[in-house]
Amino acid sequence: MPAGVGASAGGGSCPFWDSPRDGFCPAAPASPDCSIGSKTDLECRLTTTVQARPQLQPPPQSWQKKLNSTVQRVQQLKNTHNPSVLGVSVTWNSLTTTLAQLQPQSLKTRHVTLPFMCGIFAYMGNQPIPITQVIQALHQLEAEQEMDEPTPVGGHGAGMAYQNPEHEFSLFKVGKTKGSPVNNLKRQLPDLTTQSTLILGHVRRASPQFLDTISHTECTQPYKPRCAHNLNILSAHNGYLENYQQLKTKLQAKHHFESEPIKLIDSEIIPHQYEEQLAKTQNPTKAAHAIYEQAEGRNTIIILHKDAHQAHLNIIQKGKTRGLTIWTNQDNAILLCSREKPIQTTFNRLLREGRYQEITHLTRNDAANLEAHFTLNHRPT
Predict the structure, then answer these.
(1) Cβ distance 172 to 137 under 8 Å?
(2) Looking at the structure, do residues 209 and 242 belong to the same domain, yes or no?
(3) 70 lies in the same domain as 175
(4) What is the CATH number of the domain that holds 256?
(5) Which domain holds residue 37?
(6) Which distant-in-sequence residues (6+ apart) come within 8 Å of 34 by Cβ?
(7) Residue 238 falls within a domain, yes or no?
(8) 104, 130, 159 — which closes off a domain?
(9) Which pLDDT does position 40 carry in this prediction?
(10) Which residue intervals of the chain are DSSP H helices?
(11) Pick from 58, 78, 104: which residue ends a domain?
(12) The pLDDT value given to residue 36
């Protein structure tokens, strides 16, 4: 059993901790041995485990400081909610997460920031937020560009999906035209007074391989696949999925790819891969972990999946990307963005009044591997 990981509250040890997947419990939260407290509609868990894989070189001092900082944030949450402990863990109402692998990359990592990467926004909670605020955040995210970055985060397209009053996902996307893509996206929205509890947004900065596709809406994210298994799935991705063609050949069902008539975009493989894994495992955490295991390259992947009773937010980070910051609070809301500034500016009041706490903060210079899986007993808008 890895250092720092203890037995469950029920007294049994988790059989998966001794598996080759260091620090990742594939059974959580399904395994009884991994449970903390009673499983009712009001009691789930938030579990965060942060550790470096033993076979890697010791993390540099800067990374050790970041790891310690993350653990301290989680411990603050633990003290606030008086939870049971499994490793570094927090228990509160209606929310489950396993943040299982936050670790430095091996020494083979090239310390170069890719200029062609997109930006992502996501929200999941039981308190609806206005889509106009999301548009404001996306507009700032689109223009985000640090002094030594050759390109802004967006500018090649924009998209947003949200759960509508009919409990379905409404999706709106635009490609690159004159002016700001986010401004063009705003004009596509039918009702700017809409509020929603499930939202996924994306601003595009295309990889060199796909620069010839930026004018096409079909090549813009988020993606909402025409799922063969009648699942409600959205995905957003930044980075470059190096083995996307290989992953496509492994898909077993017949899939329709929106971008394929123009040029198949690497990002569109992800939701189709997820739906097949979900049909196979019947477990959102295991389905997302399969994607984590197979994805090659530097990627941030966000998958939002809902059914009649629950919503699932899966987060995958591999290597250096545009960054990733995650906030959460005791009202069970999850808020994330590729850059911290647009959220601090646009949602400052929400963060303050909702007593959000930042539980993960990765800059574009941080090479990290991370998995986070959130499940919320969702009350539809």
Answers:
(1) no
(2) yes
(3) no
(4) 3.60.20.10
(5) 15-104
(6) 8, 14, 16, 25, 27, 28, 86
(7) yes
(8) 104
(9) 27
(10) 61-81, 131-143, 181-188, 244-250, 269-281, 284-294, 340-346, 348-353
(11) 104
(12) 27
Domain tally, the chain: 2
Phi then psi dihedrals of residue 197, to 5 deg: -100, -10
Average pLDDT across each block of 10 residues of the chain; the chain has 381 residues. List them in order: 30 30 33 29 29 38 56 52 31 36 37 67 94 98 92 96 93 95 96 96 95 97 81 94 96 92 97 94 94 96 91 94 93 92 96 93 92 80 51
Residue 81's alpha-carbon distances to 44, 46, 76, 77, 274, in angstroms, are 12, 11, 9, 6, 33
- Closest Cα partner for 8 from 50, 47, 53? 47
The size of the chain, in residues, is 381
User: If you search the block for the tokens 């699932």, which residue do you land on?
Assistant: 312
| pLDDT the model gives residue 44 | 28
Measured CA to CA, the distance from residue 73 to residue 121 in angstroms comes to 22
The pTM (predicted TM-score) of the whole model is 0.74
Record the tokens describing residue 332, joined without a space.
Answer: 């069970």
What amino acid is encoded at 111 in this protein?
Answer: H
Q: Is residue 189 part of a domain?
A: yes
Among candidate residues 355, 311, 10, the one with its CA nearest the CA of residue 169: 311
